[in-house]
Amino acid sequence: MAPRTSRILLIDDEPLLGQTVRLAVEDQCEVVFASSGVDALSALERDSSFDLILCDLSMPAISGIAVYEAVAERYPHLLSSFVLMTGGAFTYTAREFLQQYSGLTLQKPFRLEELFRLLNRLNRRRPALGTG
User: H-type helices in 3-111, by residue range?
Assistant: First the structure.
């Protein structure tokens, strides 16, 4: 039986980032791209079976903080796979949140090697298909 393909929900208001990540990992992962927090929450309502959530901290309308809080409330099983991407915490709220946040972060711009390390970590910790 072929190994299960990892699924990534990538949430960022920069479509070029989504395209780049998808091209870089398409042989290992399915990437679902959401260009806003609203789109991300809709994607999660349809299907929350993601192995990794990469979410930009600063986005218009619904921030990464709001997405994180919604995931914590509705899909707490996904919190260990939630990674905040940030190029800097430019608001007081973002700085305060990051001081309290104990999850993983990925500093933007990031190298693809950093993403591959996250994926390798994910693959080591998840159970094999059929053992869940």
Answer: 15-25, 37-46, 64-74, 92-100
Q: How many CB atoms lie under 10 A from the CB of residue 95? A: 11
Using CA atoms, how far apart are residues 21 and 2, in angstroms rounded to an integer? Answer: 23
Owner of token pair 């709220």: 93
CA gap 73, 23 in Å, rounded: 32
Mean pLDDT value across the chain: 86
Asked which of 12-21, 24-33, 54-63, 116-125 is least confident by mean pLDDT, the reply is 116-125
Note whether 8 and 43 are within 8 A (CB): no
Q: Which two tokens stand for residue 80?
A: 């260990």
Entry pTM:
0.85
Q: Give tens-digit pLDDT for 59-117.
A: 888 999 999 999 999 999 999 999 999 887 678 888 899 889 888 888 888 898 998 88
State how beta strands 104-107 and 6-11 pair: unpaired
> How far is it, in rounded angstroms, from Cα 89 to Cα 30?
29
